[in-house]
C-alpha cells in the first residue's frame, strides 16, 4: 500500500532549500519550499503547530487536514487517509491525519513524510497505474515507554560515548539571579530542536538525560532548573524528561547521615525533592536507578533489599504520576562466586510482587552485558508480576564503537524472537548520540538510532524494512544498484562482527576497560574475576567454553522449556550459543562436519572476508550514488579500512592465543 504514494510532479518542481553533506541532517532530509496547505483543528497547540510546520516544509502533496477525534482512542497513534487529487494535468495527494491528541498528529505527520520519502523513491518513475490508489493506515505504538538512556556525565563526557561530548551542554544554560528562569545559547537550542525532531520522527517519547552512574549533583536546585529548560524544549515533541539518580544523593549532598531507604529523614528528603522537581517540570517522567552495582551505592549498603530501595523512591514520585525504572544489572555484591549471568535472576526473583505498582524493572537484553551475541536474558521469563523494560544498547560499546559499520536491528529482532515485546511496558536504548557534527560518529551508526526508535514503536517491522527506510531517507537515492548491496551489507554486518570478534558463543574477550580490541588472555588478579576474559572462555588443553549446562553452573536452569533442554544438551544447543553454554573439545564434530577448531578458524576467516567485501563494494561502487553526500562516503570509506584491519587483528590475536591450547594449525 505504502509504495503508492508517488509525488513525482512535485518532486521535480520543488525548490530545494537546504542541504548539508556532513550528516548533521540525519534522516530528516532536505526541506522543500512548497505550496502544501495545512488546515489544523488545533491551531494554537504547540505540538500541532510543529506537525503543521513539518508538513509545510517537507510534504510535497497538496492539502493536509489535521483532525482530532478523541473517540477513536488511538492513544499516541494516528490514522492517515491520503488520496490522489487532480490538479490541472498533475496529480497530487491530499491527506487527512486523524488522532486522539496532538502528539498523534505529529507522529502521523512524520509518517506521511516518511511514506513520501521512502516508497515514493522506492517505486521510481513510471508506475502510473498506482496514482489512483489511496492510503488508509492506522498505527499505534506497541509499547508505552520508548526511551533513550543517555550515559552523559555533567562534565560533558559520555560513558561509552564515541561521537564527541555530550549534547547537553549544561554550561550553556544560564539561570536568572534567583536561580530560576534560564536562557539557553542559540546553538544548544537549535541542536536540541533537531534532536527532538529526530526522536519524534521515530516515536521516541522519553529521554533520560544523564548517566546511570549518576552524580548526586543532578539533584541540586541548579541542575533541576536547567533540566526544566531542556524539558520545555522537548515537551512539544512529545518527549518526557527522566533523570538517573545516585541512590546516596541526600547523604552525598550533606542533608542526611545515611541513604537508608527506611530512614524517615531520607524518605522525607526524596519526597521534598520530588515535589521540587515536579513544580519545575510537571510532566517529569521519573527516575532511572543503578543501585548496588559496579560500586554504586544502594539499599544493600544498609542491608535493605532492592524492593525497599525502589519502593521508597516510588512513594516519592507517586503523587505526581512518576515512575521508577530500577535496573537489574547487578552482580558481585550478594552473589559472589555465582556465575555472573545467573545473578540478576537470583537477586530479583524472590522480590517479584514486592514492588510498588509504579516500579518497573529494567534489564539488558542478554544476561551478561551487551555482547555482540548473547542468548536472551531469562529474567524476562522469571519475573511475572513486576512490569519490565528491555534495555538495548545503541552505542556500540562492544561492537566496534564508532569505527565499525555494525547495523544492530538484526540483533534486536533476534531478541524479540525470544521476548515478546507485547509483554514489556517499555523499550530503552543506551544512546549513541554526541556532539559530533553527524551525531553518532560513524555515518552508519545513525541507522542504529533510527532502528531503535522504529522498533520501539513497532517491534514487528523487519530489520530490512528499517535499513531501507533509513538508507533512502538519509542518502536520498533509491537506485537499487545502491540500495540492495548497501542493505545487504547492513543486514549481514552484525553477523560479520560476531564472526571476527567472538563466534560460536564466545563472549567478553575484550581488552579491559575500553572494550574495543581483543584480549583473550586478559587476567588481572586484583580485578573481579567477572571482568577477566579468561573467566569467560575457559580455554584449556581439552577445549573451550563456559559450562553452564546442568552439569556446570546450571544457568540453563533459569530458562523455561523448550530452551532449557535445548541449551543443556550439547547436541541440540544452537551452535551460535555453543561456547556460551558448553565447554567443548577442540576436535568436537560440528554440524558442518568440521572440528570445533576448524569451525572457529572458518568463522574468524569469514568475518574478515565479509568486511573485505563491504570495503571493496563501498570503495569501488558506492560513491557514484552519493551525490551531495561525498563527505559521508569518504568517512565510511576510511572507516571500512579501519574495520578490516581490526577484524584481522581480532582473528590473529584470538586464534594465535587459542592455538596455545588446541595445538592445532590455524587454517
Ligand atoms: C557496562 C559498561 C559500563 C556501564 C554498565 C551499566 O558494564 O561497560 O560502562 O556503566 O554496563 O550498564 O551500568
TrEMBL record:
Instruction: Name one matching Pfam family.
Output: Glyco_hydro_67M
Looking at the keywords, is Disulfide bond present?
Answer: no
Keywords carried by this UniProt record: Hydrolase, Signal
Signal peptide feature range: 1-19
What's the protein here called? Alpha-glucuronidase
Q: Which InterPro entries match?
A: A-glucoronidase_C_sf, GH, Glyco_hydro_67_C, Glyco_hydro_67_cat, Hex-like_dom2
The keyword DNA damage is annotated on this UniProt entry: no
Q: Where is the Glycosyl hydrolase family 67 C-terminal domain?
A: 440-666
Q: What is the lineage of its organism?
A: Bacteria, Pseudomonadati, Bacteroidota, Bacteroidia, Bacteroidales
UniProt-listed Gene3D superfamilies: Alpha-glucuronidase, C-terminal domain, Glycosidases
Transmembrane domains' residue ranges: none
* Domain Glycosyl hydrolase family 67 catalytic, chain residue ranges per copy: 128-418
PANTHER family reported in the protein's UniProt record: ALPHA-GLUCURONIDASE A
Amino acid at each position: 500500500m505504502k509504495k503508492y504514494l508517488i509525488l513525482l510532479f512535485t518532486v521535480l518542481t520543488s525548490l530545494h532549500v537546504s542541504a548539508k553533506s556532513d550528516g548533521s541532517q540525519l534522516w530528516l532530509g532536505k526541506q522543500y519550499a512548497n505550496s502544501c496547505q495545512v488546515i489544523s483543528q488545533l491551531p494554537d497547540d504547540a505540538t500541532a503547530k510543529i506537525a503543521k510546520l513539518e508538513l509545510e516544509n517537507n510534504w510535497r502533496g497538496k492539502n493536509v487536514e489535521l483532525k482530532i477525534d478523541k473517540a477513536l482512542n488511538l492513544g499516541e497513534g494516528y490514522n492517515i487517509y491520503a488520496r490522489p487529487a487532480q490538479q490541472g494535468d498533475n496529480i497530487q495527494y491530499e491527506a487527512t491525519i486523524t488522532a486522539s491528541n496532538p502528539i498523534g498528529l505529529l507522529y502521523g505527520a512524520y509518517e506521511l513524510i516518511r511514506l513520501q520519502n521512502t516508497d515514493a523513491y522506492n517505486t521510481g518513475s513510471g508506475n502510473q497505474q498506482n496514482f489512483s490508489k489511496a492510503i488508509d493506515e492506522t498505527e499505534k505504538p506497541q509499547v508505552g515507554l520508548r526511551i533513550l538512556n543517555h550515559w552523559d556525565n555533567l562534565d560533558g563526557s559520555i560513558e561509552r560515548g564515541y561521537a564527541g561530548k555530550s549534547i547537553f551542554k549544561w554550561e550553556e544554560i544560564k539561570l536568572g539571579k534567583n536561580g530560576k528562569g534560564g536562557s539557553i545559547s542559540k546553538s544548544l537550542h537549535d541542536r536540541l530542536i533537531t534532536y527532538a525532531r529526530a526522536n519524534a520522527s521515530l516515536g521516541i517519547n522519553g529521554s533520560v538525560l544523564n548517566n546511570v552512574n549518576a552524580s548526586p549533583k543532578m539533584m541540586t536546585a541548579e541542575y533541576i532548573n536547567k533540566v526544566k529548560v531542556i524539558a520545555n524544549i522537548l515537551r512539544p515533541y512529545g518527549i518526557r524528561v527522566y533523570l538517573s539518580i545516585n541512590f546516596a544523593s541526600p547523604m552525598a549532598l550533606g542533608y542526611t547521615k545515611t541513604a537508608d531507604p527506611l530512614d524517615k529523614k531520607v524518605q522525607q528528603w526524596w519526597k521534598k525533592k520530588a515535589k521540587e522537581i515536579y513544580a519545575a517540570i510537571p510532566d517529569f517522567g521519573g527516575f532511572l536507578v543503578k543501585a548496588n552495582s559496579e560500586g554504586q551505592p544502594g539499599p544493600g549498603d544498609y542491608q535493605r533489599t532492592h524492593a525497599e530501595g525502589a519502593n521508597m523512591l516510588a512513594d516519592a514520585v507517586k503523587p505526581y504520576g512518576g515512575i521508577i525504572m530500577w535496573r537489574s544489572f547487578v552482580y558481585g555484591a550478594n552473589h559472589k562466586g555465582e556465575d555472573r549471568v545467573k545473578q540478576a535472576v537470583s537477586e530479583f526473583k524472590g522480590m517479584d510482587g514486592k514492588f510498588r505498582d509504579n516500579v518497573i524493572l529494567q534489564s539488558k537484553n542478554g544476561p551478561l552485558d551487551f555482547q555482540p551475541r548473547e542468548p536472551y536474558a531469562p529474567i524476562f521469563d522469571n519475573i511475572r508480576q513486576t512490569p519490565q523494560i528491555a534495555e538495548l544498547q545503541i552505542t556500540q560499546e562492544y561492537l566496534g564503537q564508532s569505527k565499525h559499520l555494525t547495523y544492530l536491528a538484526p540483533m534486536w529482532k533476534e531478541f524479540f524472537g525470544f521476548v515478546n515485546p507485547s509483554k514489556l511496558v517499555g523499550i530503552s536504548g543506551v544512546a549513541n548520540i554526541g556532539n559530533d557534527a553527524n551525531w553518532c560518529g560513524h555515518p552508519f551508526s545513525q541507522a542504529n538510532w533510527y532502528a531503535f526508535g522504529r522498533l520501539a514503536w513497532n517491534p514487528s517491522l523487519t530489520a530490512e524494512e528499517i535499513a531501507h527506510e533509513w538508507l533512502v531517507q538519509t542518502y536520498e537515492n533509491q537506485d537499487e544498484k545502491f540500495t540492495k548491496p548497501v542493505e545487504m551489507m547492513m543486514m549481514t554486518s552484525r553477523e560479520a562482527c560476531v564472526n571476527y570478534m567472538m563466534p560460536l558463543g564466545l563472549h567478553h574477550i575484550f581488552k579491559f576497560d575500553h572494550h574495543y580490541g581483543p584480549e583473550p588472555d586478559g587476567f588481572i588478579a586484583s580485578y573481579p574475576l567477572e571482568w577477566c576474559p579468561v573467566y569467560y572462555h575457559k580455554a584449556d588443553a581439552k577445549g573451550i567454553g563456559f559450562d553452564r549446562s546442568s552439569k556446570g553452573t546450571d544457568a540453563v536452569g533459569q530458562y523455561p522449556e523448550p530452551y532449557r533442554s535445548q541449551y543443556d544438551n550439547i547436541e541440540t544447543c544452537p551452535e551460535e550459543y555453543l561456547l556460551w553454554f558448553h565447554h567443548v573439545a577442540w576436535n568436537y564434530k560440528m554440524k558442518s562436519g568440521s572440528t570445533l577448531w576448524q569451525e572457529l578458524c572458518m568463522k574468524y576467516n569469514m568475518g574478515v572476508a565479509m568486511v573485505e567485501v563491504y570495503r571493496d563494494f563501498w570503495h569501488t561502487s558506492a560513491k557514484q550514488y552519493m551525490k551531495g553526500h561525498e563527505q559521508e562516503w569518504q568517512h565510511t570509506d576510511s572507516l571500512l579500512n579501519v574495520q578490516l584491519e581490526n577484524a584481522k587483528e581480532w582473528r590473529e590475536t584470538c586464534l594465535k592465543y587459542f592455538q596455545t591450547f588446541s595445538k592445532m594449525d590455524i587454517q
